[in-house]
Design brief:
- This protein has 264 residues and is of the alpha+beta class.
- It folds into 2 domains: 7-85, no CATH class; 97-263, 2-Layer Sandwich (Muramoyl-pentapeptide Carboxypeptidase, domain 2), CATH 3.30.1380.10.
- It has helices at 27-35, 70-85, 97-106, 111-116, 143-158, 172-184, 189-193, 228-236; strands at residues 7-10, 14-18, 38-42, 48-53, 56-59, 126-132, 138-141, 164-167, 209-213, 242-244, 260-263.
- A hairpin with a 5-residue loop joins strand 6 (126-132) and strand 7.
- The longest helix has 16 residues, at 70-85.
- It binds zinc ion.
- Zinc ion binds next to strand 9.
Length: 264
């Protein structure tokens, strides 16, 4: 589907999923989700907050209207639905102030960005459905990256190359959650940074970055560079607007990532 009909509406604390893509965790939720037009989901822990049904909003938590960010989410649902009906499809960016507050709480100040030459990356206000990843999870990308990925994947297939998406858009909250869980287990910020990108600085936040693999090849391993899929990407990805962000000896001090490609 070159013009993906599904979009994820993104707000600072809450994501709004189109109906039909999320799996239920309990039977009453399953019935509601099956009929829902949209599902409101808390970004921090993935909890389902409400389902928009044809007859109105079904609350899936107590005190929904006290949920942080609920006003922003309901406003975005209304205004983006209206824009889409009018044929407008504008992708904006969310503000960074909430991320900055949370980075400060973690003790990750701007020194990290200065030291690595990386910049804070905003999340887009909407993401386009780009099919499913290797694990059958919905893959979300920036609208332009989504279209380019689907075209590139099909072109590779015509050359008998299978490209599999491993991971696309990831929210600030997702990355913050990894940090918070590891800090709670007693690791230091510096230890975590040797393995995980600092929240806010990953190209995956923009919805333009994509980790790619191929059949019978593990995810995110340097051995990907030995595959015919990697040779194909090296020769062709540029024509679709994708560039390998972290080649060997890149100036950011990030390990070589032959699987990570970003749409410009
Ligand atoms: Zn990546």
């Amino acid at each position: 589907m070159p013009f993906a009909p599904h979009i994820l509406i993104n707000t600072p604390e809450i994501e709004i999923w189109p109906g039909g893509l999320l799996r239920a965790r309990s039977n009453p939720d399953a019935r509601a989700l099956a009929r829902s037009r949209h599902v409101l989901r808390r970004k921090r822990d993935g909890k389902y907050l409400a389902a928009e049904l044809p007859e109105g909003l079904l609350h899936l938590v107590q005190r929904l209207m006290h949920e942080p960010g609920i006003d922003d989410a309901l406003d975005a649902l209304e205004s983006i639905s209206m824009q889409r009906r009018a044929g407008l499809d504008v992708v904006g960016e969310l503000p960074l102030h909430r991320l900055l507050d949370r980075l400060e709480q973690l003790g990750l100040d701007e020194g990290y960005g200065e030291g690595s030459g990386l910049e804070l990356i905003a999340e887009p206000s909407t993401l386009a459905f780009a099919g499913f990843d290797r694990y059958r999870r919905p893959l979300w990308l920036h609208r332009h990256a989504s279209r380019a990925w689907l075209h590139m994947r099909d072109a590779a297939h015509r050359d008998d190359i299978v490209l599999e998406a491993i991971s696309g858009y990831r929210s600030h909250d997702y990355q913050l959650g990894i940090f918070e869980r590891k800090l709670a287990r007693g690791q230091s910020v510096d230890e975590i940074l040797t393995v995980n990108a600092a929240p806010g600085y990953s190209e995956h936040h923009s919805g333009r970055a994509l980790d790619i693999s191929t059949l019978e090849e593990p995810a995110a391993e340097e051995s990907f560079e030995k595959t015919t899929a990697f040779d194909w990407l090296t020769a062709n990805a540029g024509a679709y607007g994708f560039v390998m962000s972290y080649p060997r000896d890149n100036p950011h001090g990030i390990v070589y990532e032959p699987w990570h490609w970003c749409h410009g």
